[in-house]
């Protein structure tokens, strides 16, 4: 059910489900719209902008391959859905900070959406290569 989501990450596109009946957007992928129960859902692109809704810093690795400390967060996208994700970058994280999607490559060509502190347009243009 989540194949289209992961396929979009190969092109570094963030998508969420959108109900064709009521327009509600949701994430994680489901078979039914959580707003109206509709079954006609499509994947629609989102801006990749959001705010930190909640977070925690993990200091103990749950399994090999996880290098602590790292920050796990709920990010509320500008379009409404909430994603469980990682926050990256050397930041003193706090709730309500603005964030922007970034991408962590996976071995199979997909990318994991992670989030970093959003900079202003002026800061973004100063950091363009």
From TrEMBL:
Per the database record, which ranges form the ChsH2 C-terminal OB-fold domain? 45-104
Q: Which Pfam families match?
A: OB_ChsH2_C, zf-ChsH2
| Domain annotation ChsH2 rubredoxin-like zinc ribbon: ranges | 6-42
Q: What domain of life?
A: Bacteria
**By its UniProt entry, which InterPro entries does this protein fall under?**
ChsH2_C (IPR002878), ChsH2_Znr (IPR022002), NA-bd_OB-fold (IPR012340), Thioester_dehydratase-like (IPR052513)
Q: Where is the signal peptide?
A: none
In its UniProt entry, what is this protein called?
Answer: DUF35 domain-containing protein
Q: Which organism is it from?
A: Streptosporangium minutum
